Amino acid sequence: MAWQIGSLSQVPGVYTNFEDNAPALLQRGPRGIVAVPLLTFDGTATAETIYEITDPNGEAADLFGESNTESIDFAFEGGANKVIVYTMPATPDTPAYETMLDALEGRTFNAISLDQESDSTNQDTVQQAVTAWRDEGKHVTFVAGGDDSDLASGNTRSGSIEDAYVVNAITGVDEAGTVVTSAELAPYLAGLIASIPLNETATYKPTIGDDVTPRLRKSDRETAIEAGSLYLIAGADNVKIGKGITTSGDFIRSINVRQSILNDLERILQSEVIAQLDNSPEGRQTAISMMKRHLEDNYVNIDAISDGEGDGNEDAEMDVYVDPQNPPQQDAAFFIVEYTDVYSMERVFLTVRRQG
């Protein structure tokens, strides 16, 4: 039974109050947010303005016009829970795209795609921005596509925008007799990639469509993987991603985890550590404990990263510690964060022996 000053019971017994002083659990940052620069609109929206759409059946049609929301609709259909729309000016030249990217830099999102177009100059501009953002501590994925008429040119495109944070699709889908190119499908794939749980792979994730255009032979798939291209395959009852990789050949699952951890630690350190803890052994240990607890609760416990158990690798366990090569200096503290990816079983090699 609980007790309260001013009304203490006279009955013999044990009276206990419980106070939970454990720090609040630091949650993982938001997932499932896609950014799209909208080329055409004729509703109430104005040019060079950012709009956040959270309801796929809500205000988008009024803002942009019913015939102009396909990229937004695709992003939601892929799994996005929010689409950040930037309305492009009437003349969307390279400076306009650079302005769009500058405007979006301060917003939180997980993936960006173009508005169903595949202009190589615009793709290069976005890829360069994603790289620059990474250097500034902003981690997002760019999803690109093309017209799919030539597989070689699609693979070449993967090479021209090669980056761990870029996904390039080289096949589209046939949906109810309508061909949807990979460029048109890019917002859908951005929604899918942005919303995949961190402990799941993109490989074999089902997509829209009744068939793939074009269908790839096994040799074509091998070539695509070597080039860092994302392709689709037609299964028995659905279309799905063939192998979930970025143009650098990294697994999308691994990159999603990497981006999420980097974004989370930056957010936590900015809000809980910077100018709030002394740069003393005690302060540094508090920061370490905070980061380790977050990674344990939000990544290790869901098998997004390894806990070192059963991996055959004693160094696989997640760890955070003071950087031994860079001792603290006045107001500067240096830490090392170590973790090991968990991989999905995507390839199985069988040896079947008949013994008699």
Automatic annotation (TrEMBL):
It comes from the Bacteria. Residues 93-247 form the Tail sheath protein subtilisin-like domain. Belongs to the myoviridae tail sheath protein family. This is Phage tail sheath subtilisin-like domain-containing protein.
